[in-house]
Design a protein that fits this description.
Blueprint: H1 10-16, E1 26-32, H2 35-44, E2 51-58, E3 77-83, H3 93-111, E4 116-118, E5 122-125, E6 128-140, E7 143-153, H4 166-170, H5 176-193, H6 199-208, E8 216-221, E9 228-237, E10 243-246, E11 252-255, E12 259-262
Parallel strand pairs: 1-2
Antiparallel strand pairs: 2-3, 3-7, 4-5, 5-6, 6-7, 8-9, 8-12, 9-10, 10-11
Helix pairs in contact: 1-5, 3-5, 3-6
The structure holds biotin.
Biotin (BTN) binds at residues 34-36, 58, 61-64, 67, 69, 78, 80, 121-122, 132-134, 150-152.
Length: 273
């Protein structure tokens, strides 16, 4: 398959982003440690709401729970946005939810294929992980002071194994600028909508593309002696973004962190739908 190996066209990207909050401060670093780290430093230095950090290659890309995020140079999307939203910290999950929904919209619009969310932040396509969102926050009292929302999306390259790339699924290489432009245009729109009655629509879209809803799931919380396991049926998320899981006895658990797997999914064709 033909691969896209050139640098991102920043002139094109700026044009695609014009009129959004993301065209005012674009920081492009061909190689960096982690775009989230760069964006957090910008936040501490007073950079504007909507600052966008993009890289072609990360030496210390990270995911949730301290995991590494791997990507090959010039093939995928690696970016972080710095936000200074007027938002209670209890509502900060909406920043991740809105980014997930923006990715669903952009991927569907550009490739005609559905992306799904594995709560809370994994982007899946056809049963395999194609991307992830890492949201990091600084709070002042009950309010978010700043948030960094970082995205790694496998566009034209995947590390293999349980991972997927968009190009592999659609059978052709995918241009990164229109994809990034569309994700951020949608994100600009949803960030505005969070504070309006449209918030419900965002949550509905997140739920309707949920990989877990209705499935038997196993949630692992903590490590070693501290480890806790919850097994049951995923019902959906509550108004604060926690996953609701009903166990065998009918008790409903409110899960706000942990590693989720779908029971009986290994090598199961159902996972590919
Ligand atoms: C996850 O799967 O747990 C989230 C992965 C998020 C990876 C992205 S890549 C761009 C940004 N910089 C990082 O170091 N992490 C995020």
């Amino acid at each position: 398959m033909e691969q896209t190996l050139s640098r991102l066209d920043l002139t094109l990207l700026e044009r695609l982003l014009s009129g959004t909050i993301f065209c005012n401060n674009i920081v492009y670093q061909e190689i960096t440690g982690s775009t989230n780290q760069v964006a957090k430093r910008l936040a501490e230095a007073g950079a504007v709401h909507g600052s966008l950090v993009i890289s072609e290659e990360q030496r210390a890309g990270r995911g949730r729970m301290g995991r590494k995020w791997l990507s090959a140079p010039y093939r995928n999307l690696l970016f972080s946005v710095l936000l200074r939203p007027r938002l209670y910290t209890k509502d900060s999950f909406l920043l991740t939810v809105s980014m997930a929904v923006s990715i669903f919209d952009a991927v569907l619009g550009i490739t005609g294929r559905e992306a799904r969310i594995k709560w809370p932040n994994d982007i899946y396509m056809e049963g395999r992980k194609a991307g992830g969102i890492l949201t990091e926050l600084s709070a002042q009292g009950r309010m978010v002071s700043w948030a960094v929302v970082g995205v790694g999306l496998n566009v034209n390259w995947t590390p293999g194994g349980e991972f997927a790339s968009i190009s592999e699924i659609v059978g052709r290489s995918v241009n990164r600028e229109p994809l990034l432009g569309e994700i951020l245009k949608r994100y600009d729109y949803y960030l505005e909508a969070i504070g309006t009655q449209k918030r419900g629509e965002i949550l509905e879209r997140y739920e309707s593309n949920s990989l877990l809803k209705g499935k038997e799931v196993l949630i692992q919380q903590g490590q070693g002696a501290e480890q806790g396991l919850i097994k049951g049926k995923a019902l959906g998320i509550d108004s604060e973004g926690a996953l609701l899981v009903e166990d065998n006895s009918g008790q409903i658990h409110r899960v706000s962190f942990g590693d989720v797997s779908v029971v009986g999914w290994e090598n199961n064709e159902e996972a590919r739908t």
